[in-house]
Design a protein that fits this description.
The protein is mainly α. Among the domains are: 93-259 and 381-399, Orthogonal Bundle (Citrate Synthase, domain 1), CATH 1.10.580; 265-371, Orthogonal Bundle (Cytochrome p450-Terp, domain 2). It is built from 18 helices and nine strands. The structure holds carboxymethyl coenzyme *A. Residues 45, 230, 261-263, 265, 290, 298-305, 354, 356, 359-361 line the site of carboxymethyl coenzyme *A.
């Protein structure tokens, strides 16, 4: 049965085309609306707005489904590497052995930072938030690479390849600068995630993470790799729609991700758990605060614009928290508090009625902390994971009939009036 749609605005009725996605999602195409009726749609927060067609990621928030290019994340996690997922997102298919070998070698060969990027990182105060430094460092790459936009290398756009290879080097350099440690050069004997851990922690008390830990972190990066039109990805697409270059667009995505309602929630969760520890581990206190409409307190790591069921990423990360802490022989009381908080919230009518479940950020920080990452680096880890997704969306937008993103508004300010001279105001 074909679906039809029409809209009546005043005395004008307009039939509207309907588009149906490959998972039978229905979109009502309102592109002619303003021309034909003079009206615009009103959808603050864009909860009902499809801003684009996309073939990158499918998610069903009601059923708790997340697939990259058709592959369920449950199948990708643990079976393939983060680099394979990055290729999948960027190219549309998993790499074959030859493609992966070429990509891996090219990633290793391009990890070194231009001197000006290191200088910019080192110019920041040591207590600057790492996400501010990350965005600035990525933006600074545009000065070096802008002219190379069209070149390809190892099957990828050179700018994409360099961002993949250099973001971990930038992230580790930011951490080491903040900690007053000398940077550690990339090591081409180590694969992507093991090399990142080495650049972070070599020569410190936290060094020596083994292959199991590198694999666990790799899996976390996979689970963060894309999430369709979230706030930072929409930012990357919007900035890119003005034909800003890839680095400028990704730098903007990083700043959007930093916010505590988005990727910054992983840091906010651990800070909240610290607050609960300070309240004697009383999860009931946190639940009561979150329900109190006179308080701005929210249960961080809970709720999602799209998931009205378990976030499938949170389910996998919760398992990893047990695995990683078990492997490290750590008994973190915060993990027990987090589990107790989840249990209390899921039984509470407030959270049940609003369909608020733990999201991707609820358990990830516990793992990052156990591995030795300081709180400020948690959202940087999210950015490392999300990079291929951002780039896949940037490409998709710019490859299509890219229009500049430019929402309308409903003006509610003053009507036209005359300027009064200063002496008469
Ligand atoms: N704690 C307490 N109440 C909440 C929470 C929460 N974490 N999340 C939503 N609510 C309530 C909210 O107060 C509102 O109640 P009411 O209907 O009585 O006014 C209702 O649930 C709907 O909330 P909303 O703010 O309209 O929902 P939204 O879709 O606009 O916001 C969200 C989604 C993720 C911003 C929000 O759930 C939130 O602030 N969560 C905490 C921050 C967080 O964990 N963010 C990470 C999101 S997942 C990873 C990512 O995207 O980066």
């Amino acid at each position: 049965m074909s679906i039809t749609a029409e809209i009546r605005v005043g005395d004008k009725t307009l039939p509207l085309p309907v588009i149906v996605g490959s998972e039978q999602e229905v979109g009502v195409d309102i592109q002619a609306l303003r021309d034909k009726t003079g009206a615009v749609t009103f959808d603050p927060g864009y909860g009902n707005t499809g801003a684009c067609e996309s073939a990158v990621t499918f998610l069903d928030g009601e059923l708790g489904i997340l697939r990259y290019r058709g592959y369920p994340i449950e199948q990708l996690a643990g079976k393939v590497s983060f680099l394979e997922v990055a290729w999948l997102l960027l190219k549309g298919e998993l790499p074959n052995a030859a493609e992966l070998a070429t990509f891996t070698a090219a990633e290793k060969a391009n990890r070194g930072l231009p001197a000006h990027v290191t200088a910019i990182i080192n110019a920041f105060p040591k207590d600057a938030h790492p996400m501010a430094v990350l965005s600035a460092a990525v933006l600074s790459l545009s000065s070096t690479y802008h002219a190379e936009t069209a070149a390809t290398h190892a099957g990828l756009n050179f700018n994409e390849l360099r961002l993949m290879a250099q973001l971990p080097t930038i992230a580790a350099a930011i951490y080491r600068h903040g900690a007053g440690l000398a940077p550690v050069a990339p090591d081409a004997k180590l694969d992507y995630t093991a090399n990142f851990l080495n650049m972070m922690f070599a020569g410190t008390a936290r060094s020596g993470h083994d292959a199991d830990i590198a694999n666990a972190l790799d899996l976390l990066l996979i689970l963060h790799a894309d999430h369709e039109q979230n706030c930072s990805t929409s930012t990357v697409r919007l900035v890119g729609s003005a034909q800003a270059d890839l680095y400028a667009s990704i730098a903007a995505g990083i700043t959007a991700l930093w916010g505590p309602l988005h990727g910054g929630a992983n840091q906010a969760v651990i800070e909240m758990l610290d607050g609960i520890v300070a309240h004697g581990g009383d999860v009931g206190w946190a639940v009561a605060q979150a329900k109190d409409k006179d308080s701005s307190f929210r249960l961080m790591g809970f709720g999602h614009r799209v998931y009205k069921n378990f976030d499938p990423r949170a389910t996998l990360i919760k398992v990893q928290a047990d695995v990683v802490l078990g492997k490290l022989g750590k008994n973190d009381p915060q993990l027990a508090i987090a589990k107790g908080l989840e249990e209390a919230a899921l039984k509470d009518e407030y959270f049940v009625a609003r369909k608020l479940y733990p999201n991707v950020d609820f358990y990830s920080g516990i793992i990052y902390r156990a591995l030795g990452f300081p709180y400020g680096m948690f959202t940087v880890l999210f950015a490392l994971g999300r990079l291929p997704g951002w780039m896949a969306h940037w490409n998709e937008h710019n490859a299509g009939k890219a229009k500049i993103g430019r929402p309308r508004q409903i003006y509610t300010g003053k009507n036209a009036r005359d300027v009064v001279e200063l002496s008469k105001r």
